[in-house]
Write a structure and sequence with these properties.
By secondary structure, the chain is mainly β. The protein contains two helices and 26 strands. InterPro entries: Pirin, Pirin_C_dom, Pirin_N_dom, RmlC-like_jellyroll, RmlC_Cupin_sf.
């Protein structure tokens, strides 16, 4: 019997640069608290342009989790946070009742034609925290624990795994680990969390003997301890956590357990109500509310 419940290949969208979306999908809308999973790049951007810049836009009811493999991005938000994120760091932004942020490519990255590649995830906040005050936390790579495994190294990004606990301010039991494995390297994914998945960023691996190509998200069966082995030098992610405490609705950048709350947020952004969605200091642009 296979230990894989679903294999998700996702679909690539061009939003000024290539983005592969794995969640939500027809096969699985969530994995633990993760409700959204985008793989950005790899891509380079031309100097003197705004290619790759994401103008100010709003969020409610979720935490954005940004992690880069290469390149850099500049985060700004309506709390006044200004933070450069570089490979191995984690940016964790809890939107709660409402926040606005932008993400832009630094000019130095453009001028040097540095490849930008990373993941942006959304974690649905527990219902009790959906209307919390927004917050932003940056965790440099060196502050997040590393674990050696056979033929590789793990970076514990959020939650507890492999005997280590990340300092990242997760709001519910969360599993998020980056793994760099040399060819032949192995690791076990324990059944410590109710919902888990493995994503192959680059390279190739097997999961209990089943082949996983780059760009594949494998949703695991509950309770199964599985072994992942790299068939070549491979980067992969392990993600999951406890199941959500109820259904979530997603519309554009808004996540909530209440459809009515999303309608309120839509109206507030369309009318640029700064009590719910304050301006981002230093920014003059914004992404309008989409038609659908």
């Amino acid at each position: 019997m296979s230990s894989i419940r679903h294999l998700i290949q996702g679909h690539t969208r061009d939003i000024g640069f290539p983005v592969k979306r794995l969640l939500p999908s027809m096969e699985a809308r969530t994995v633990g608290p993760f409700v959204f999973f985008d793989h950005m790049g790899p891509v380079t951007f031309d100097a003197g342009t705004t290619e790759g810049d994401v103008r100010p836009h709003p969020h409610i009811g979720l935490a954005t989790v940004t992690y880069l493999f290469s390149g850099a991005m500049m985060h700004r938000d309506s709390l006044g946070s200004v933070q450069l994120i570089t490979p191995g760091d984690v940016n964790w932004m809890a939107s709660g009742c409402g926040i606005v942020h932008s993400e832009r490519i630094p000019e130095e990255i453009r001028e040097k034609k540095t490849v930008v590649q990373g993941l942006q995830m959304w974690v649905a906040l527990p219902q009790a925290d959906e209307e919390m005050s927004p917050g932003f936390w940056h965790y440099p790579a060196a502050e997040l624990p590393y674990v050696d495994v056979e033929g590789g190294k793990l970076h514990i990004l959020a939650g507890s795994a492999y005997g280590q606990t990340s300092p990242v301010k997760a709001h519910s039991p969360t599993l998020y680990v980056a793994a760099n494995l040399q060819s032949g390297g192995k690791l076990q994914v324990q059944a410590d969390y109710a919902e888990r998945a493995v994503y192959v960023v680059s390279g190739a691996a097997t999961l209990d003997g089943e082949a996983l190509a780059a760009g594949t998200l494998a949703i695991l069966e509950a309770g199964a301890v599985v072994e992942v082995q790299a068939q070549q030098d491979t980067i992969l992610m392990i993600l999951g956590g406890e199941a959500l405490d109820g259904k979530r609705f997603i519309w554009w950048n808004f996540v909530s357990s209440s459809k009515e709350r999303i309608e309120t947020a839509k109206f507030a952004w369309a009318s640029q109500q700064t009590d719910m969605f304050p301006k981002v200091p230093g920014e003059t642009e914004f992404i309008p509310l989409p038609d659908r």
